[in-house]
């Protein structure tokens, strides 16, 4: 049974749909992801559940799931994932029009990963030499005389040699991700996704150890001309591993949840879009750590800082807020202004996924503040062009790149005509 709700929107369910033990388990395991309101006269004796910015699928029991849908159109969710995880090379828009839910998204991406793994198997998995030490009845590689002299009773020979094997991190990432997808239970047992994922898993599991891989392990891979085509596959693996959480032990089976933190996704998407589309005269730093000189113990982690490349001067501090309020909160404004002061930056802004009725602007001493929107409705690149023009206007750079601005304005007008 599926219990469906939408992000940031409280949904009420009949009290018979959820037992007290299931609700307590949800609260204990996922209290930071969803808020549970217990039945009372205030809720008309119904369960109230609200997502705290997460979308995806949470297992409640063997036959019951909580499905949190996103407000963002599925096509634009793919667009955000494409930028955030650098999935351009996968061309995964083919066949995505049929996706109606996050479960469909999960299955489609699982099929793409499985097919790409099978394609790599046909061409041969990437192999590398690893150092091995083993005691053998014959000499292989280099005889380790020091060990042999210490152990003269054993007739076998201690050897050091190089083994050419496919059992390396590059392939273990693929195998563990395929195993994670199968274990999730999100893909229907009779779906195309399960068929392809099982086939890919069985094809490579004989030569590769199915050892746990963490998302950070993917960052340790060094790519070269022989394994560079693994890069987009590992990016897709990172998507699955980052958004598949620890196992939920409600019921008889250990089933991991699939949850996308939309606030983090929005932040990473905006940063990735800007890094790709900013003029070469600027560069963007993401998640920059900074502290006040007088109090080094007080450190900030800033979403984005825009710099002028030639001088290295910070131009603007930017903070994303995946919210839909009527106006920016005092706490959010104070936060980004504190970031700007810490960076000695003259401008600060908050970026929201949808527009307010009016832009909010103010000047605090010599620091300028303003709100912007990167609209997630409609074409994302079109929204990005409008967003970039607003940034230029705030930075008083309209005259600095007249040709680029004319090209962008032409794109915006042409898009509007269509």
Task: Give me the side-by-side strand order of the main sheet.
Answer: 11-12-13-14-16-15
By CATH, the architecture of the largest domain is named 3-Layer(aba) Sandwich
Q: Poorly predicted ranges (pLDDT <50, ≥5 residues)?
A: 247-253
Structural class: alpha+beta
Distance between the termini: 42 Å
| Strand coverage percent | 15-25%
Radius of gyration: 26 Å
Average predicted confidence as pLDDT: 85
The biggest beta sheet reads:
6 strands, mixed
CATH topology tier name of the largest domain: Trna Endonuclease, Chain: A, domain 1
Note the overall shape: globular
Q: What's the number of domains?
A: 3
Question: SSE string, helix = H, strand = E?
Answer: EEHEEEEHHEEHEHHHEHEEEHEEEHH
List the total number of helices: 11
CATH C-level class of the largest domain: Alpha Beta
Helix content: 25-40%
How many runs of DSSP E, i.e. beta strands?
16
Give a nutshell description of this structure.
By secondary structure, the chain is α+β, with helices and mostly antiparallel strands. 37% of the residues lie in helices and 24% in strands. It is built from eleven helices and 16 strands.
């Amino acid at each position: 049974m599926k219990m469906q709700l939408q992000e940031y929107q409280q949904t009420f369910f009949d009290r018979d749909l959820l037992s007290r033990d299931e609700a307590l388990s949800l609260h204990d395991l996922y209290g930071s992801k969803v808020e549970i309101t217990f039945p009372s006269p205030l809720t008309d004796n119904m369960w109230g559940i609200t997502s705290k910015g997460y979308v995806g699928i949470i297992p409640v029991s063997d036959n019951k799931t909580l499905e949190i849908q996103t407000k963002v159109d599925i096509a634009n969710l793919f667009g955000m994932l494409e930028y955030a995880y650098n999935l351009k090379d996968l061309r995964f828009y083919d066949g995505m029009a049929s996706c109606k839910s996050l479960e469909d998204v999960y299955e489609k991406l699982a099929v793409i990963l499985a097919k790409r793994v099978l394609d790599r198997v046909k061409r041969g998995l990437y192999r590398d030499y690893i150092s091995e030490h083993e005691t053998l009845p014959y000499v292989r590689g280099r005889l380790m005389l020091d060990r042999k002299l210490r152990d003269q009773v054993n007739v076998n020979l201690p050897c050091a040699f190089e083994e050419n094997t496919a059992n390396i991190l590059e392939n273990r990432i693929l195998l563990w991700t395929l195993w994670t997808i199968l274990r999730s239970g999100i893909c229907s047992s009779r779906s195309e996704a399960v068929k392809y994922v099982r086939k890919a898993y069985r094809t490579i599991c004989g030569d590769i150890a199915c050892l746990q891989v963490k998302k950070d392990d993917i960052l340790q891979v060094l790519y070269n001309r022989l394994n560079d085509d693994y890069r987009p596959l590992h990016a897709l693996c990172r998507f699955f591993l980052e958004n598949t959480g620890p196992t939920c032990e409600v019921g008889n089976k250990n089933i991991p949840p699939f949850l996308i933190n939309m606030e983090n996704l929005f932040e990473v998407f905006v940063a990735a879009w800007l890094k790709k589309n900013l003029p070469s005269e600027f560069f963007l730093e993401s998640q920059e750590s900074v502290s006040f000189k007088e109090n080094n113990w007080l450190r900030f982690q800033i979403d984005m800082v825009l710099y002028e490349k030639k001088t290295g001067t910070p131009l603007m501090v930017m903070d994303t807020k995946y919210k839909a309020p009527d106006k920016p909160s005092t706490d959010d404004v104070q936060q980004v202004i504190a970031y700007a002061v810490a960076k000695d930056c003259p401008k600060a802004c908050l970026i929201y996924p949808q527009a307010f009725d009016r832009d909010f602007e103010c000047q605090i001493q010599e620091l300028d503040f303003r709100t912007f929107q990167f609209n997630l409705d409609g074409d994302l690149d079109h929204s990005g062009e409008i967003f970039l023009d607003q940034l230029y206007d705030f930075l008083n750079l309209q005259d600095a790149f007249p040709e680029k601005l004319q090209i962008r304005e032409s794109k915006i007008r042409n898009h509007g005509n269509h």
